[in-house]
Write a structure and sequence with these properties.
The complex is a heterodimer of chains A (131) and B (129). Chain A is an all-alpha fold. Chain A has helices at 10-13, 18-48, 51-61, 67-91, 98-130. Chain A has one domain (20-130): 3 helical TM bundles of succinate and fumarate reductases, CATH 1.20.1300. Chain B has one domain (17-125): 3 helical TM bundles of succinate and fumarate reductases. Chain B has 5 helices and no strands. Chain B is mainly alpha-helical and 129 residues long. Chain B has helices at residues 6-10, 20-47, 53-61, 63-91, 95-125. The chains are: A mainly alpha (131), B mainly alpha (129).
Amino acid sequence: MAQPERPLSPFMQYRWQYTNTLSILHRITGILLSLCFFVLVYWLAAAASGPERYATALAALGSPLVVPLLLGGLFSFCYHLLNGIRHLFWDAGYGFELPVARKSGWAAAIGAVVLTAVLWIVLGASLGGAA
Amino acid sequence: MSLRSPLGRVLGLGSAKGGSGHWYSQRVTAVALVILGSWFIASLVMLGAGASHAAVTGWLHSPFSAVMALLLVAVTAYHAQLGLQVVFEDYISDKGTRLVVLVALKFALVVAALIGILAVLRIAFGAQA
C-alpha cells in the first residue's frame, strides 16, 4: 500500500526567498565574527608581547591567504551590525509590515556591501600611506 | 479536584523550560556591541591597517580606549557564547555531544576573553612605548 500524503514540515515546503537568505546570512556572519574574536585576541596578545611578536602577528595577518578572510570578517561585521539593528527594531515591535521589512532588508544588504567597500578602501589607503 | 489553576498546571511542561534570560541578554549585549563594535572599527580606521606597535600601545594606553577595549572583549565573548549556543542547539541533536560541545564552547570563549583582557591590561599599565 502506498504511503498516504503526509504533511511536510514548514522548512520542507517554503520557497527560497529574500527573508530566509538574510536570516541565514545573519547566522553565518555571526559564526564568522565569533572566529574573528579569536583573531582580535591574537592581535591584542601579540601587541602586549612586544614589538617583535607584534611584527610577526602583523605579517601573519597580512599574508595573502589571511587578507581575504579579514575582508570576509569585515563584511560579516558590517552585515551583522546593520541586520542586527533591524532585528532589534523587530524585537521592539517595529518594521514587521512586508514593504518595510523588504526595504530594511535591502538596506541592510546593500548598506553592508557599501560600508565594507568604503572601510576596505580607507584601510587599504592607510596601508599604502604607511609603506 | 485539583485547586491548581489551569496556568499553574502547564507551567514548565514545555520543551523549552527557560530562555527569556538568554534572549534578553543577547539583545542587551547586541545594543552594547553596536556602540563598542563601531568604536573599534573607527579606531582601526584611525590607527590604519598595519599600525605600528607604538601606535597600538599608545592607543590602548589611554584609559578611555582601554576601558572600551576591555568591554569589547568581554561583551563580544558573552554575545558569541549566547549566539553560538543557539546554533549548536539547533544542529546537534545528540544530547551528550551537545552538552560536551556547549561546555567546550564556554571554556574556549572564557579563556580567549581572559587572554584578551590580560593583554589590554598589560598594555594599559605597561610603560608607554
